[in-house]
Design brief:
Layout (H helix, E strand, L loop, with lengths): L1 E6 L3 H12 L4 E7 L2 H8 L6 E4 L2 E2 L2 E2 H10 L5 E6 L4 H9 L4 E4 L4 H18 L7 H8 L9 H7 L6 H13 L4 E3 H8 L3 H13 L3 E7 L5 E7 L3
Parallel strand pairs: 1-2, 1-3, 3-6, 6-7
Antiparallel strand pairs: 4-5, 8-10, 9-10
Helix pairs in contact: 5-8, 9-10
């Protein structure tokens, strides 16, 4: 389990983020801190893999806490969760090693996508002592569709499709080690309803990115599988 701490002064937001985290497989909430002093005290005695960090705290600043982590060589990764949309703050966050930046209000799909990508990278890196460029690029570079800006992707998607759900499914398709997969398998992995996953898979197939395979069982019932083409 990925040991996680939430740093958020608003009790309601802290509770919402805690519930969101509980829905994502592989993460365990070890501490929900209301301020930076509380967070620092906990870190002095405990090891945390991931910190979900607010920027605006009473008389405190999350970016200063991020700098403090790096200065003290604390290896916890950080995802910023904040209403601050300023480019200056976003640049500071990435300069000091934040792995993602979520702007409030955000959807659960975007939250889950961020944590799933982090989990995939953390899990995969445990299997390597060295890594080749092509494998590393899976965690650094985006896929062809993710190279589009959010606005461009939104424009390219048909009405009724959510860009974050689309990205989550595309990420899973690329990161999966399975050659073929079913709607049910993706639904279980992503925590997205089967009917939704099927709709997106059919859409991606129409874009020429997936091959749809029909297999028939003993009773003649068709089983639909999907195989990733060279996206």
């Amino acid at each position: 389990m990925i040991k996680t701490m939430i740093v958020e002064d608003d009790p309601m937001v802290r509770q919402i983020n805690s519930k969101f985290l509980d829905k994502v497989e592989g993460f365990s909430l070890k501490k929900a801190a209301a301020n930076l002093t509380e967070a620092k005290e906990f870190l002095s005695k405990n090891t945390i893999d991931l910190i979900l960090l607010d920027v605006f705290l009473p008389n405190e600043n999350g970016i200063d806490f991020l700098k403090w982590l790096r200065k003290n060589e604390i290896s916890s990764d950080v995802i910023l969760i904040t209403a601050d949309k300023s480019i200056e703050r976003i640049n500071d966050a990435f300069r000091y090693g934040a792995v993602d930046y979520l702007i409030k209000p955000f959807t659960f799909e975007r939250f889950k996508e961020s944590l799933d990508i982090f989990k995939e990278r953390l899990s995969s890196f445990k299997n390597y002592q060295t890594i080749e460029q092509g494998e590393l690029d899976k965690f650094i570079l985006t896929t062809k569709n993710k190279e589009l800006s959010d606005d461009e992707l939104k424009d390219n998607l048909e009405k009724g499709f959510n860009k974050y759900t689309y990205k989550s499914i595309v990420n899973e398709l690329h990161n999966s080690n399975e050659e073929c997969f079913t709607t049910e398998e993706l639904s279980e992995k992503l925590g997205i309803a089967k009917v939704t996953v099927r709709k997106y898979l059919d859409y991606i197939s129409k874009q020429g990115q997936l091959e749809k395979i029909i297999e028939y069982g003993k009773i003649g019932r068709p089983l639909y599988k999907y195989k990733l083409k060279n996206i």
